[in-house]
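okkk here we go again. third time trying to get the NAP bound version out, last two times i messed up the smiles copy paste (missing a bracket lol). double checked this time i swear
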Amino acid sequence: MKRIAILGSTGSIGQSALSVIDAHPDRLMVTGLAAGENADRLAEQIARYKPRNVAMATDAAADRLRASAGLSGVRLAGTGRDGLVAVASDESVDLVLCASSGTDGLEAVLAAIEAGKTIALANKEVLVMAGGLVTEAARRKGVLILPVDSEHNAIHQCLHGRATSEIRRIVLTASGGPFRGRSASQLEDVTAADALRHPTWQMGRKITVDSATLMNKGLEVIEAHWLFGLSAEQIDVVIHPQSVVHSMAELVDGSVIAQLGVTDMRLPIQYAFSYPDRWIAPVPSLDLARAGRLEFERPDLRAFPCLGLAYRALRAGPSLAVVLNAANEVAVTLFLAGRLSFPSIAHVIEETMNSHEPANVASVDAIRDVDRAARDRAQAVAHRVQLKV
Ligand SMILES: NC(=O)c1ccc[n+]([C@@H]2O[C@H](COP(=O)([O-])OP(=O)(O)OC[C@H]3O[C@@H](n4cnc5c(N)ncnc54)[C@H](OP(=O)(O)O)[C@@H]3O)[C@@H](O)[C@H]2O)c1
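finally!!
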């Protein structure tokens, strides 16, 4: 039995993970669940999976859980970041799936690594913010980080432990999102509702907007740098609207190895849960004849500048990636609230990055300081930009 803690169990990835666990009751069990604000859904999950520990993002959410009798028979390990740390590092856990949105999972991932847990990582923001700290801690403790993001999961499968010296480059595929093919001027008036209509993947709201701006792919470029030890020059992005090829690795001899599959996150989640074994999965087979054409095109960096900003952050060094991520979270939240235009997301991030002086990010505290300052700056920039649009 592999004993699993899920951070973000009420979200899109969290629920897919529970359905993978449902499909393998003799191999997988839930011992920890953590959620943000959705006390009703967490109460249902507690009743069904009877975990040992649970946590919620705020005291108010925990009170709602208590009031609905959702806590009967389980321990509330805590709230906020402390709650996530307690759930992730408990002795009852073998593997932690980090699928909470935002960056609150950082301390929990580090605590789980210190406690020797295997990490299944969906939350790319944690690596963008603190890739050096996380990968160094994992190396020191001999802990595996298994990527759940479908592109990195694909690369993990393609490389299968191959030495970095054998890799020429990797190619991350991107669906292109709902606005693929539009020019910059055609993006001026798009709304949050338009951005949330993703053509191929069902995901949480923040990552869906990130897919529409191509920032999702930018964050993935930085994530790939930390996971596979590759430079910015070795990480390419290609638009592939059908999302059938989940990514590719080109080896030094010119061979290109790709991983293909249906667009169902249960596949990469199960890969991480079963690794290094393979189990029958509750997903349909890929029907290539039905998929028909597979198309590939270059990303349009003029219409979607966020991808270029992410490459800039990766080349500049780790503190600018913290700023990129923080400013993006601020801008996307404002866009989802209808308070910022779609093109202004990139403006806010770029201006926030322009005013950043490289800083020390060698500890969690230092990272949190840079993150906090960048969020304040991004709010101020957004306020100015909004007045202009
Ligand atoms: N969805 C995908 O297909 C996909 C693919 C690749 C990578 N990812 C990554 O996986 C992560 C989750 O994505 P998602 O699509 O599943 O997002 P989502 O549907 O919005 O779910 C986010 C989850 O995180 C929880 N959460 C938020 N803040 C929290 C906090 N402070 N403490 C504890 N839990 C918190 C939410 O709880 P409440 O709902 O209870 O508030 C929810 O369970 C993101 O980093 C995303 O980039 C997602």
